[in-house]
Records
---
Amino acid sequence: MGTEKRIFIIDDEKDLLFILKEYFEAHGIEAVTYEAPPDLGVEVREKKPGAVLVDIFIPNSSGFDILNNIRKIDSNLPVIMMTGQPDDEKRLESLRNGAYALLAKPFRSFEEVYHIVNNAANHYGEIQRTVELTEEIRKRHEHERLNLLELDFLKKLQLMIGETEDSSFVIKNSFALLKNFLDFEVFAVRMVQGEDINIQIYPNVGQDARLMECVTATLVGKVPERSRAEKQTGATTGGDGEPAYSYMTVDMSSRDTVYGYAGLYRELPFNESEEAIFNRFCSNIALTLEKIRLFNEIKALSIHDGLTGIYNHAFIVRALEDEIERSKRYGSALSVALFDIDDFKSVNDTYGHLAGDAVLRRLAELMKSSLRTIDIVGRYGGEEFLAILPETDGANGYTVAERFRDTVEKEYFVYGGERIMMTISGGVGRYAYGMDVNKLIKVADDNLFRAKREGKNRIVL
């Protein structure tokens, strides 16, 4: 089986290292083992692990020192501590120092160890992808060679990133910024929004029909196929002795995307210097619109699973924390259902990993369409999916989960002309006052384990 993830395991127990390495690599995770702490700076930079599994007690060293060193090297890299000692203070200390999780030896099951480590590696991978996208945006800034005027303009535009998703807000504030650098009477923008014609004019020109006619004539005729570098200048013809309006228009484009068309209007003609400034400033406005779009994509990426499109592990756990707090406050019912695909490994082995990915995506679609609109669904890890069922007691939670199980059993998963039949097992946990997230999920996970043990393709409450 090919491996896409790598982890470090640091423990002085040779037999345990051997067993863990064999188990993880049998499940698609490369395990690099160490009987003593290595040069972590070098090893982490060269091998790029997704998680580190380390014993708290190591001869001539300390798991806490290793944890602290790793946090200095990469504060996002998850470290899972292991201990066979009953010292609760040591356990708490590991969590206070920033450990991702704590595992007690002997392990209850290697499957539990796998899920915790795999989830940690998945979470770390999502953080890394977000960091890479953020770095891409930062590099675009560096390549922009702006003069002082443009830089000041750009800095003020940057304040809008992360504060708004509304292009109208950006355009309105751009009008105020442009007034500091260019002399004009009206700033108008036509945003590209499908077939709709949406023109924003600042300031409000009221009943000035002549100006409205000029704006309409110069912006409505714009089409996305025009060159992104194109700009126009000219003047409208005044009637009845009225002065003509001069104008200049430019495409607001970034890369291969046209966001809209902007125009400045006044009675006096515009010169070439003003045209150049307006053109460059509109490029900055377009860049801001693009960054807001990228920012929103990054936000979406940070809470959604890259393969299935539903919420990821980190978000679904935070959402469950919120629902538990709501249940505490209002005394409302709450249940969760944890699902796992039965014999999923055989799908990958028989049809290939792409088929397995297709099954996961389709299962996520079925989950979203089969459950209720108030339910919150996410990929808990691997082939496990978690559904949060607000306002639902255990019996009704079982009914919801059973209905979904039945839907999956009757579904044909089609990939490459092959019809793949799948079943799922599920465990339902009902919230009781005093439970935290881990306790509630553990109840569901224990029930899921029981469903597997009792023959699969069933729901256990």
Note: The chain has three domains: 5-119, 144-302, 313-460.
---
Amino acid sequence: MKHFALALSAIIISGCSLSQNPNIPATALPQNSGISGSEQQLLNDRWWENFHDKELNLFVQEALHQNNDLKIATLKVMQFREFLNIKKSEQLPRLDVIGSASKTKSYMASFDQSFTFDQFELGAMATYEIDLWGKLKNTKMAAFEEMMRESYLRESIKQRIIADSVIAYFGLKTNTKLYQVAQEKYANEKAFYAYMQNQYNAGLIRESDLLQEESLVQMYYDEMVKQNNILSAYKTAVSILLGKAPAEVYAGIKKMQDTAYGSSSLPVPSNLPSDILQRRADIQAAEAKVKASAFLVSVAKSAFFPSISLSGTQGYASSDLNRLVTSNTSTYSAGANVLSPILDFGKIQANIKAAKIEQQMALLEYQETVRKAFGEVKDSLHAYASNKERLHSQEKRHHAINQKKRILEDQYKEGFATHLELFEARKEEFEVALSKEAIKFETLKSAVELYVSLGGGFKADMKNNHTVVPKM
């Protein structure tokens, strides 16, 4: 008996040590990480509202409401939550109602007579598995981490949808502005061409000057048609994003004012947050996968140890249905079952090795996700800073060429500037105006991508909020 107790104690102690350490690799942050308090406030749950555009807010809300990928991701979180509930229930006793009724007829040749027997049973059966080795607990924890992983993946999808919708919104406004610029320039040039025709008819200008103006009219017209085609294609792409007809999408956009942001007015953080690992949902998803794989290694190891379960029944048995539920017909039973592997030809060991391989792959995926995240943040910070400088330069250039064009217009009327000088200045101003809008869009797009690379408004220490699945 003493030896049996020692053996049982050894088994229990070894079983209790089955839990695996996820071994999440430590990640060193750059020396200059950390953003100011005011910039920290920009990384909130509704970061797109930092652009202070009510129409943009409605646009994002509509995109989130209509997107099927987000709906599927939400359903997956709900599905994995039910898997977790199943694993939780397996840790608790199970109670079942049992009942049976039978009629048996037998014939005895010695008496040359048949006999009929009725048997009725009614009761309850309880079963409970003793989780000595932590198999059920580790299975439940693995299910929890899988649910959290799906929740984080949903957050990543949500942030991508928000970013795409914000970029689409600014893109639609930019393309609308580009079309309006081309349309306005074409209308102005048509009027100026009519003026030049009168000048030519009066013999005040050369034919070559008139032909140059005609060339400029056609260039503006070509650009207007091209921008209209681009705008039409963009509206179609946005309609797919929102699940609406292009006419419905454009109905709310065409009255919007031009994007008011300049190179010095974009509300975007300029450095790496010190808690970037908690702010990236994809990193948290990869970490949850590592944790789940560690728990599953423990589950695989527990197969080496006996499975112990208790069971008991309480009920009634009688040959008369009318007297079934009475004290003299009550019955009960209680017992324990032990199931332990002896020979499985290496199946358990193979399962453990397979689980460890999954854990190693999850660790490698985590490391790769972290590297990719830091690379994205670095690239996004650089792209935003670079585009911001380009926009500032283009704004100064546009201001300078505008001033030059106005001076040349006055000088041309007074006869101090040639038509060619004015022609080139007007052509350059048009090209710079289009370039400025395009660079402004690239700057806005890089600002949005920077928000996404910094995790948007997500933060892992708020995971309880993020596991709440929104209503469909």
Note: Confidence is low (pLDDT under 50) at residues 1-16, 462-472.
